[in-house]
Specification:
By secondary structure, the protein is α+β, with helices and mostly antiparallel strands. The chain has a single domain, classed as 2-Layer Sandwich (Ybab, Chain: A). It is 55% helix and 17% strand. Strand 2 and strand 3 form a beta hairpin. The longest helix has 31 residues. The radius of gyration is 19 Å and the shape is rod-shaped. The two termini are 31 Å apart.
């Protein structure tokens, strides 16, 4: 039974570390851009878009589709970078072990 108690304590410590890491990652950001930097997107570790910057030169009322494509590309890339950041940090903490519900 002593082994089970130790395992439970270790699991609780790991859970506390993971929660702390999630809080820290929520504050960290990644940036992505498209169109040679004409559209910039910043996302945080909670996979939320924090900001979008669009250079006025890329805003063309005659070509709204291009702007939409640039925004979509930058957002998708920022979210991918955010997920990779979180996965990498969680992997360091768990030794690469996948834990359901934690990412």
């Amino acid at each position: 039974m002593k082994g089970m108690g130790n395992m439970m304590k270790q699991a609780q410590k790991l859970q506390a570390k993971m929660l702390k890491l999630q809080e820290e990652l929520a504050e960290r950001t990644v940036e992505s851009s498209s169109g040679g930097g004409m559209v910039k997107v910043v996302a945080n570790g909670k996979q939320q878009i924090v900001s979008i910057e669009i250079e006025k030169e890329v805003v063309d009322p005659e070509d709204v589709e291009m702007l939409q494509d640039l925004i979509t590309a930058a957002v998708n890339d920022a979210l991918t970078k955010s997920q990779e950041m979180v996965s990498g940090e969680m992997g360091k903490l768990t030794g690469g072990m996948k834990i359901p519900g934690m990412m």
